[in-house]
Amino acid sequence: MSLSLQIKVREEKNIPIIDLIGEIDVYTYPQFSEVINKVIHDNHFNIIVNMENVKYIDSTGLGVLASSANKIAPNNGVMHVICAQSHIKKIFIVSGLLEKNFKLYDNEAEAISSVS
After folding, report:
1. Which of 15, 55, 76, 100 is the most exposed place for a label (fewest CB within 10 A)?
2. What is the spatial distance between Cα 16 and Cα 38, in angstroms, rounded to a whole number?
3. pLDDT tens profile 1-14
């Protein structure tokens, strides 16, 4: 059982970046959901989620990301996910989320330049 997820929200060039450290699973997804919903509620529709330090994500974590992507889609929003770890990247590829309004990046600089 994991209860370890640290979340920090910051902005670079007026783009919200949600930094995640730990695991996103059935125990921690409510915390993640609350933060990302607040960012969307503040009228941010291009969001960077930095998962460089995420060790594990399960279907509940993917559900939060998919639901959030659906919320920002009507405003031409895109969920920009930073993830260089092959085992996490594979989850995004297999899930089919990349066919929607998701983009994956290997680092933050790439994501910020894509959004700006």
Report:
1. 76
2. 11
3. 556 899 999 999 99
